[in-house]
Amino acid sequence: MNTVALVVFTVLFGFVTILGFVAARWRKGDLTQLAEWGLGGRRFGTVVTWFLLGGDLYTAYTFIAVPALMFGAGATGFFAVPYTILVYPVLFLAYPRLWSVAHAKGYVTAADFVRGRFGNRTLALAIALTGIVATMPYIALQLVGMEVVIAAMGVRGEAALILAFAILAAYTYTSGLRAPAMIAVVKDVLIYVTVIAALIFIPAQLGGYAHIFASVGADKMLLAPATHTNWGAESAYATLALGSALALFLYPHAMTGILSASSRHVIRRNAVVLPAYSFALGLIALLGFMAIAAGVKGNPAFADGFKTYGNNFAVPALFLQMFPSWFVGVAFAAVAIGALVPAAIMSIATANLFTRNIYREYCAPDCSPARESQVAKIASLVVKVGALFFIVALPSTYAIQLQLLGGIWIIQTLPAVLIGLYTRWFNPWALLAGWAVGIASGTAMAASLNFAKSIYSVTIFGITIPCYAALSSLVLNLIVAIVLSAIFNAAAKGARDDATLASDYL
Fold it and tell me: Fewer CB within 10 Å, N or C, the chain?
């Protein structure tokens, strides 16, 4: 057991726990109202939203998994950098419209918007269930990141993990979205301190960046070039980046961060400044190459860690090898807190979906606002227990496989949510059919790859095009939705219900 690292880790973890409970009194509001508990009263300004969205999207698993992918697969892992750059123009252009209509109509979730826009509660139910199912394993993966660093300090078993999540559940229940918003500031400061220290100190110990890059094999430095008959790694890289960019802000936790902003201008300003996180992500990715240069996999002291956690152990091993114990505690606390922030937002987001679009829509249409908020709080606890089940009762590979499906599933909501912001030409039943085709085809593609990969090769006119399964299944979704909408609209009589007005989007 690394006692010094564990003490520093515990002190920092205890500090953010106190912040989590104190957050209930920050920017006071009536937490018996769902918009106050689940969206922070829609009052977060530019700075708080920047930290909240950064803490929401750049998670503990990102800090562990992106360098692990660079460590194991090489240049392919860098797809995470361009996709987080591509997403911000989409955020700048489209999501202020969503904020405006949600603010005008009191919508709390994307499914609320779909229900109002298309007047079809079955379609809204499909959107809500997709968000809940896609997010559950994402929460579990935050636990994977936390579990890795706790084990790296010599603490074995699930007791520490269960305790950490019990604390998370308590302050999320008490403070709602205010808790992760406040803690995100501490998390990001720790992450930036850790990354900057690593970029300066580790290369100095390894002989500079020239030696680090020289230590990485040529096969990991470059993508395999495309040919006339097979577009290969280049196609896989490009479609991964594009598909991931289209899917990212459709996730319920990202949507919750957006809807908690105080104005549409806050969202646009954040679309401009959030790429600072993409820069940090590129630097974090380099830790994978540093781990190769440091030879952590050949260190006998880390044999058990790599055997248990695979390449996900690369970053913890690198920090254990290169830094004094006290700084290891700081770095590992940054990762663990980086798990708590998104896990809290994700559980709140899924609770909002369940409460608004399942419980209130189908079980208790006349429930009071206080009852609605109470159900959401209870639902957030249930979601956390479900995520914990993935880690404690099942191998972590199950969560990873389901998270792979999560990206494929959540992108199927794009036609109803993102395109729906600009047009209501689509027929809701056509959108539902397209959603079903996208879900089924994307799942089938992933299943054919044994849920181990997300790149499915499509052959067109003799050319093999490796493509991210989420993107290719989305194309099928759109084709079905467009064709059926044309047919259904031609046969329909009268205008469809739309609870929104053109002015609501401005």
Answer: N
Element spanning 504, H or E? none
**Cα separation values, 429 from 120, 176, 414, Å:** 8, 35, 15
Instruction: Determine phi and psi for 351, rounding to 5 degrees.
Output: -65, -40
* In contact, 112 and 357? CB cutoff 8 Å: yes
Q: Cα 75–310–143 angle (5° rounding)? A: 100
- Interaxial angle between packed helices 159-175 and 369-393, expressed in degrees from 0 to 180 and rounded to the nearest 10: 170
Q: How far apart are CA 22 and CA 460, in angstroms?
A: 58
Q: List the domains of the chain with CATH numbers.
A: 3-396 (1.20.1730.10)
pTM over 0.90: yes
HEC readout, 62-103: HHHHHHHHHHHCCHHHHHHHHHHHHHHHHHHHHHHHHHHHHH
- Which one-letter amino acid corresponds to residue 506? L
CA distance 397 to 408: 17
Cα distances (Å, whole numbers) of residue 369 to 7, 36, 117, 366, 397: 43, 11, 23, 9, 39
Q: Using alpha carbons only, what angle is made at residue 81 by residues 207 and 46, rounded to the nearest 5 degrees?
A: 115
Mind giving me the DSSP string for 302-348? GHHHHHHHGGGGHHHHHHHHHS-HHHHHHHHHHHHHHHHHHHHHHHH
- What is the rounded distance in angstroms from the CA atom of residue 71 to the CA atom of residue 405? 23
Let me know if 361 is exposed, middle or buried by CB neighbors in 10 A (0-12, 13-18, 19+).
Answer: middle
Contact partners, residue 283, CB within 8 Å, separation at least 6: 195, 199
The per-residue pLDDT for range 51-81, each reduced to its tens digit, is 988 888 888 778 888 898 889 888 888 888 8
Contact criterion met (CB below 8 Å) for 30 and 374: no
Q: How far apart are the first and last CA of the chain?
A: 57
pLDDT digits 0-9 by tens, 94-152: 999 999 999 999 999 999 999 999 999 999 999 999 999 999 888 888 888 888 888 88
How many angstroms separate the CA atoms of 500 and 114, rounded?
10
CA distance 117 to 369: 23
Judge contact between 253 and 73, C-beta under 8 A.
no
Pairwise CA distance, residues 170 & 394, whole Å: 24
The two three-digit tokens of residue 398, written as one number: 């199950």
DSSP state of 450: T
Residue 44's DSSP bridge partners are 261
